[in-house]
Amino acid sequence: MNLVQKGFTLIELVVVIVILGILSAIALPRFIDLTSQAGAAAAQGVAASVSSATSINFAARKASNASAIQILSCANVQSNLSALLSGNPPTGYAVSGAGTCTDGNTAVCSVANASVTGATASATIVCAQ
């Protein structure tokens, strides 16, 4: 009588489960708290969008485009954020910074992600009169 064994033994299954447990114990802490890094990356993305939008707005203003906005400060960018980032601008971001700038010059504004503490990025805006 020939017996053919099919499947795994209990010892083999236990060894695999132990190995998976060890791997998950090592890898899991690396992925648990990525909230702050994700919030900072999102703030950097919005800051880059604001920088690009003010550059495009400056060019449109110089070309006498009627839809171009006068940008003189970071507060002005915050109040016109939805117009600069046409479509559906992201919510929960604040653009702030001190001082004003003149036509064609730049200013550095801070873009903060309100949903994640400490998630800020810098945006260089091009002022347009």
Give keywords.
129 residues; alpha+beta; three-stranded antiparallel beta sheet; 4 helices; 15% strand; elongated
How would you sum up this structure, described in words?
By secondary structure, the chain is α+β, with helices and mostly antiparallel strands. The chain has one domain (36-126). Helices cover 47% and strands 15% of the residues. The chain has four helices and three strands. It has helices at 10-31, 35-62, 74-79, 81-84, and strands at 93-96, 106-113, 120-126. Strands 1-2-3 form a three-stranded antiparallel β-sheet. A hairpin with a 6-residue loop joins strand 2 (106-113) and strand 3 (120-126). It is elongated. The termini are far apart. The model has no long low-confidence stretch (mean pLDDT 87).
Briefly summarize what is shown.
By secondary structure, this protein is of the alpha+beta class.
The main β sheet shows up as: 3 strands, antiparallel
Between the first and last Cα atoms, what is the distance in angstroms? 95 Å
Query: What is the helix content?
Result: 40-55%
Low-confidence stretches: none
Estimated share of beta-strand residues:
5-15%
Write the element-wise H/E pattern from the N-terminal end onward: HHHHEEE
Number of helices: 4
Radius of gyration: 26 Å
Secondary structure: number of strands: 3
Shape: elongated
Overall mean pLDDT: 87
State the secondary-structure class. alpha+beta
